[in-house]
Amino acid sequence: MRPRQLMLFCAVLAALPGSAVGQTEPASAMGSALLASCQANEPGCGAYLQGVLDMMIVARKAECRAPRYDRAALRAAYLRWAEQNSYFMSVHMVAGAERALTEAWSCEAGAAQPRH
Predict the structure, then answer these.
(1) What is the 3-state secondary structure (H, E, C) of 71-95?
(2) CA nearest 100: which of 67, 68, 65, 53?
(3) Cα gap 5→82, rounded to integer Å
(4) How many Å separate Cα 20 from the centre of its chain?
(5) Where do the structural domains in the chain lie, given as residue ranges?
(6) Residues of the signal sequence (predicted)?
């Protein structure tokens, strides 16, 4: 199983209603908590998104031109994405963060700018 598939599988598994993992998941690890942190412009938001991006880079072996150390740009991309994808608020925050960053900075040839 590829790293991205494994990461998404774990996030989905944790969100399943009968899952023991899902039952122990603290509210502070859910997408809604990350959204609230980013809306409040808390430092933890940018740090978390930068960590997710670093994990994605390691898994893909590619940077995909994302602004690796520009936490404000990562935060802005996440907030734009979260406004359109509220269904990720009830799963682990890594699922939405990974999807938001992937959509903003895809690894397709010539993807130099975030999508709006």
Answers:
(1) HHHHHHHHHHHHHHCHHHHHCEHHH
(2) 53
(3) 21
(4) 23
(5) 30-116
(6) 1-20
